[in-house]
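Note to self: keep these together.
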Amino acid sequence: MSRPDRSTRALHQALPPALRDAVDDFAEHLSRVRNRSAHTVRAYVTDLVSLLDHAVRMGCVDLADLDLSVLRSWLARQRTTGAARTSLARRAASARAFSAWAHRAGLLPADVGAALASPRAHRELPTVLRADQAAALVEAPARRASLGTAPPATPRPGEAPTRQAPLGTAPPATPRPGEAPTRQAPLGTAPRSGAAEDTATVAVPLRDRVLLELLYATGVRVSEVCGLDVGDVDHARRVIRVFGKGGRERSVPYGVPAQRALDDWLRQGRPGLLGSHSGDALLLGARGGRLNPTTARQIVGGYAEAAGLPRTSPHGLRHSAATHLLEGGADLRAVQELLGHSSLASTQIYTHVSVERLRAAYRQAHPRA
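Structure:
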């Protein structure tokens, strides 16, 4: 079973053996048969343990005792404790998935979750950058490199933001008598010295540039871009091979600016960060390992903040890429394929974004709006 949090593990251990085995078998099914990510399996397991704990409290001693009234009671209890509509919708989906699997496996006499309704999740329109803002963001590393500065790192939740030195200046470190002031390492790098520091100073902006270019040019997820290997890039056709959710493979094209960034990174940047544990990873972190999605999010947020842009994440660049494709006349099915959405409904939200922009332009420009 995937490793849920401590409270879920405690509830799991307190379940009757038959229910506990059902949870473990369902997690195995999600992981090995459905090829779900560890994060998805952990979310489903957390929901299922909560459901079965509630069922035991209602007097269910065996899985066959689980019925629709128990499922509804569980969701109602979740709502009274303040769960959001999106959380309730996800938990209802978890219950339906488990019920369908348990019925097929012969653990339930009927698929009791098939009739379980759930509140419609409220989907907020994603925040997207304008085309000129997206261009300013992806070009920010080149401008920063020419000035010899690094963008401010985005603080983690709960941390106070660090005070940044003015543009083009170093923090006011006081050197000892006769010593030269130390150079500051770029964002995402570990402290280095001498030639290694100079190499990192050149390599990191090139890495950041290709990261931003690929995220915006292709609209891929941050986990997908960090998972790219050197061999996944087809330079001749200008496409990358991406393995998305559920292990689904797709080919995504990119443009000339991203190709230039890739060429510069592979020639002048990646060799400077290459280490014994780099493997075939395309994008590397400060210590030579594969770039971590958390670090990638900090890089995107840092450059957006430094450029004076709205708060942006890799997923925000994905939203922006999809919206700009549709506004430029791309077919919705083509955008679905590029983004790797299994359902067209997931892609249709971007048409709503475009309609909202059209309404805003209408209200601003039409004399009788």
